[in-house]
C-alpha cells in the first residue's frame, strides 16, 4: 500500500478514531499508534528485512546516526510505530 492509497482509505474514516497497530498478521497483539517516520525499506530474500534512513543528514548525525543506518537500494517508505 502506498501513502496515497492510505490517505484515500483514511479519508473514509472518522478522524477522531484511535489508530491501533496490529503487531503481526495473525493478530497476536495490538497497540495504539505512537509515532511514524520516513526512511528506506529493503526486502531481503534470506534473513530479516532492512529498515533505516534514506540518506544521512546533519540532524541525523547529531542524533547519533551514521552511514551504517542508511539503507542502500531501499524503497522510500512510511513506518508506523506502535506504542508498545
Sequence-ordered SSE layout with sheet pairings:
Layout: H1 3-10, E1 20-22, E2 30-42, E3 50-52, H2 58-62, E4 75-82
Antiparallel strand pairs: 1-2, 2-3, 2-4
Description:
- The chain has one domain.
- Helix content is 15%, strand content 32%.
- The chain has helices at 3-10, 58-62, and strands at residues 20-22, 30-42, 50-52, 75-82.
- Strands 1, 2, 3 and 4 form a four-stranded antiparallel sheet that branches.
- Strand 1 (20-22) and strand 2 (30-42) form a beta hairpin.
- It is globular and about 40 Å long.
State the gist of this model.
This protein has 84 residues and is α+β, with helices and mostly antiparallel strands. It has helices spanning 3-10, 58-62; strands at 20-22, 30-42, 50-52, 75-82.
How many structural domains in the coordinates?
Answer: 1
The helicity comes to: 10-25%
Please give the count of helices: 2
Distance between the termini: 23 Å
Query: What average pLDDT do the residues reach?
Result: 92
* Backbone shape: globular
* Structure classification: alpha+beta
β-strand percent reads: 25-35%
Features:
four-stranded antiparallel β-sheet, alpha+beta, 84 residues, 4 strands
Amino acid at each position: 500500500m502506498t501513502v496515497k492509497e492510505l490517505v484515500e482509505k483514511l479519508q473514509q474514516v472518522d478522524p477522531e478514531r484511535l489508530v491501533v497497530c496490529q503487531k503481526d498478521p495473525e493478530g497476536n497483539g495490538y497497540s495504539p499508534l505512537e509515532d511514524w517516520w520516513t526512511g528506506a525499506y529493503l526486502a531481503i530474500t534470506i534473513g530479516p528485512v532492512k529498515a533505516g534512513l534514506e540518506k544521512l543528514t546533519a540532524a541525523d548525525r547529531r542524533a547519533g546516526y551514521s552511514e551504517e543506518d542508511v539503507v542502500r537500494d531501499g524503497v522510500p517508505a512510511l513506518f508506523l510505530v506502535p506504542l508498545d
